[in-house]
Design brief:
By secondary structure, this protein is α/β, with parallel strands linked by helices. The strands form four sheets. A seven-stranded mixed β-sheet has the order 10-13-14-9-8-15-16. The chain folds into two domains: 232 residues, Aldehyde Dehydrogenase, Chain A, domain 1; 181 residues, Aldehyde Dehydrogenase, Chain A, domain 2 (3-Layer(aba) Sandwich). 39% of the residues lie in helices and 18% in strands. The structure holds nicotinamide-adenine-dinucleotide. Nicotinamide-adenine-dinucleotide (NAD) binds next to helix 7 and helix 8.
């Protein structure tokens, strides 16, 4: 499909100045909120059809989180859009300095399948708040949700403001041939590189929200019961198909057995003793991903779970022990309900192990000791994370969310989203009441010469 005319229409609409009006932005966000609320049940049904997401998970991780993001944005938008007066150095006497946030223009948002509604709409909130137009390319692997997204957006916004382009890789590539003013991509590291290469042709700025292997460390002094429950929650939510899910566990040797007992209990509490017959357990998105995940089940020793339902594409919450960095499961992001566990004695050994791999998107450390927490924070670079929790950091609008190195470029959520979709235009306002000569050439004695 030819997207040139759509992009052109959006550019013209952007140049009309409409999207820059604060009242227009607020009204658009209110419309979006209204449409999400009106389609709550349809969204729950679509997410059930695409991924067998439970109503609880669909609401908390795809709907409620967006309603909260819109509420927060609407509340703070009037102050975010204001030009910020900043300091002026003495060398610039007579002038004042301002930073004007301005929208980029026409933006492209490409999103993945794992939270197919939330990850398409959360960046859109930032794009609208900052005064941009947007084209969203949702994932082809969750067609019901992508269709509904398209329906919702077209019912509230004209295409020259916000449009949804459904389709697969070809659609993505056709869009990437156009000259966008900003590209916001959420997806795999591999495709992130394709996006950046395409963006480079037009020097289009990008945000890349990628993935990677996110470690979770349970130290010997951790509150084991709480650690077990919070890790089981963060790992098995959405059947492990969460970019910031703990990918693998490092548990201190002295507490490993005790931790695993609590972990089994926590998993049963959350998903029952027979999760495969739990109608609310999310399925794996495709047969290809199911087969990839199933092949890991012969790595190390299955200590918890390990059963699968090929027809239903479900895999039990599973723990593998006797794992080393050489195992296939430790080569790439797992993105499924399988948790490999390695043990350690010295924190320094695992820090070295993590250093030998690309910067994680998230990291979690469970310890009651501040010096252990500091040692981890000071010595490992990662996108973001938690001390004594998992995943929760991404739900705070005060914490910019994003990766570092291979796990991504840039960040968003809350004011971070507004900043991401805004260019900071720096302006110096100079006086004409006097003109200091020392900046000009051939003036030796400053003011005396005027
Ligand atoms: P993906 O990279 O395969 O696809 C993401 C999007 O890119 C889809 O819309 C897809 O159609 C498109 N795409 C795929 N191949 C393309 C190509 N060659 N050229 C242009 N576009 C292409 O990712 P996925 O499988 O949908 O999602 C899983 C990945 O996303 C995981 O690695 C996960 O960690 C990551 N992720 C990151 C975050 C985050 O916030 N950092 C959130 C969710 C998922």
């Amino acid at each position: 499909m030819d997207y040139s005319s759509l992009v052109l229409k959006q550019k013209q609409f952007f140049l009309s100045g409409k999207t820059k009006e604060i009242d227009f932005r607020k009204a658009a966000l209110q419309k979006l909120r209204g449409a999400i609320k009106n389609n709550e049940q349809q969204l729950i049904d679509a997410l059930k059809a695409d991924l067998n997401k439970s109503e609880f998970e669909a609401y908390t991780t795809e709907i409620g989180i967006l309603l909260e993001e819109i509420r927060f944005t609407l509340k703070h938008l009037p102050s975010w859009v204001k030009p910020q007066k900043v300091k002026t150095p003495i060398t610039h006497i007579g002038s004042t300095s301002y930073v004007y946030p301005e929208p980029y223009g026409v933006t492209l948002i490409i999103s993945p399948w794992n939270y197919p509604f939330q990850l398409a709409v959360a960046p859109l909130i930032g794009a609208i708040a900052a005064g941009n137009c947007a084209i969203i390319k949702p994932s082809e692997l969750t067609p019901k949700t992508s269709q509904l997204l398209s329906l919702i957006i077209s019912s509230i916004f004209p295409r020259e403001f916000v449009a949804v382009a459904e389709g697969d890789v070809e659609t993505s590539q056709a869009l990437l041939n156009e000259n966008f003013d900003y590209i916001f991509f959420t997806g795999s590291v591999q495709v992130g590189k394709v996006i950046m290469e395409a963006a480079a042709k037009n020097l289009t700025p990008v945000t890349l929200e990628l993935g990677g292997k996110s470690p979770c460390i349970v130290h010997e002094d951790a509150n084991i019961k709480i650690a077990a429950k919070r890790i089981a929650w963060g790992k098995f939510m959405n059947a492990g198909q969460t970019c910031v899910a703990p990918d693998y566990l490092y548990v201190h040797k002295r507490i490993k057995e005790d931790f695993l007992l609590h972990f089994k209990k926590a998993t049963e509490e959350l998903y029952s003793e027979n999760p495969l017959s739990n109608p609310n357990f999310t399925r794996i998105v495709s047969e290809r991903h199911f087969n990839r995940l199933q092949s890991f089940l012969n790595n190390g020793t299955v200590t918890i779970g390990g059963n699968v339902n090929k027809e239903g594409l479900t895999i039990e919450p599973t723990v593998l022990t006797n794992i080393s960095w050489d195992d296939p499961i430790m080569q790439d992001e797992i993105f499924g309900p399988i948790l490999p566990v390695m043990e350690y004695e010295q924190l320094s050994d695992i820090i070295e192990g993590i250093h030998n791999h690309p910067n994680p998107l998230a990291l979690y450390v469970f310890s009651e000791n501040e010096s252990i927490q500091k040692e981890v924070l000071n010595n490992i670079s990662f996108g973001g994370g938690c001390i004594n929790d998992t995943v929760y950091h991404l739900a705070s609008p005060y914490l910019p969310f994003g990766g570092v190195g291979n796990s991504g470029i840039g960040s968003y959520h809350g004011k971070g989203s507004f900043n991401t979709f805004s260019h900071n235009k720096s302006v110096l306002k100079q006086t004409t009441k006097f003109d200091l000569p020392f900046r000009y050439p051939n003036v030796k004695d400053g003011l005396k010469k005027i």
